[in-house]
Amino acid sequence: EPSMTCEVCEGAEDMPEPLQQCTAWLRAYFCEPATTETLPVPAFHQPVLQRDSFTKQVLWTLLRDVKFGEAVSYKQLAELAGNSRAARAVGGAMRSNPIPIIIPCHRVIRSSGASGNYSGGQLLKEWLLSHEKLQQEKL
């Protein structure tokens, strides 16, 4: 919506640094998407992102390689993460994503072009993809 405004709650400057980074990143994502690439990735202290695993590899690959406004299939993401036969495991990694907007699992779709599943629900996934497409067209 063109009339959409972005507000950060009062006292945001009193938040811990990682929370300030998340707030800045989310504000940028929804209001100034071109700036997300220049912001630091918030510190993630989630166990799934700390241990060596294919899930961690997939999530970091998604964050690093699939840019705003792009989409990738489960199979393509498996290939990018180093195991072209692990498309189903990519689906499992998406289900265990602890921060689904910042690590953009909504950008992972089926090879057929259908949007596929999303932990936030089908409508939210489609809205996020539409938001990115609309913002990309503005740039």
UniProtKB/TrEMBL annotation:
Pfam annotation, one family: DNA_binding_1
Recorded superkingdom: Eukaryota
Span of domain Methylated-DNA-[protein]-cysteine S-methyltransferase DNA binding: 56-133
EC number of the protein: 2.1.1.63
Any one GO biological process: methylation
Alphabetically ordered keywords of this record: DNA damage, DNA repair, DNA-binding, Metal-binding, Methyltransferase, Nucleus, Phosphoprotein, Transferase, Zinc
Catalytic activity as recorded in UniProt: a 4-O-methyl-thymidine in DNA + L-cysteinyl-[protein] = a thymidine in DNA + S-methyl-L-cysteinyl-[protein]; a 6-O-methyl-2'-deoxyguanosine in DNA + L-cysteinyl-[protein] = S-methyl-L-cysteinyl-[protein] + a 2'-deoxyguanosine in DNA
Keyword hit for Phosphoprotein: yes
UniProt xrefs under CDD domains: ATase
MF terms (GO), sorted A to Z: DNA binding; metal ion binding; methylated-DNA-[protein]-cysteine S-methyltransferase activity
Location(s) in or outside the cell: Nucleus
One cellular component (GO) term of this entry: nucleoplasm
UniProt cofactor(s): Zn(2+)
This protein's record includes keyword Transferase: yes
Alphabetized PANTHER family for the sequence: METHYLATED-DNA--PROTEIN-CYSTEINE METHYLTRANSFERASE
Family assignment from sequence similarity: Belongs to the MGMT family.
Function statement: Involved in the cellular defense against the biological effects of O6-methylguanine (O6-MeG) and O4-methylthymine (O4-MeT) in DNA. Repairs the methylated nucleobase in DNA by stoichiometrically transferring the methyl group to a cysteine residue in the enzyme. This is a suicide reaction: the enzyme is irreversibly inactivated.
Name this protein carries in UniProt: Methylated-DNA--protein-cysteine methyltransferase
Organism: Rhadina sibilatrix
Gene expressing this chain: Mgmt
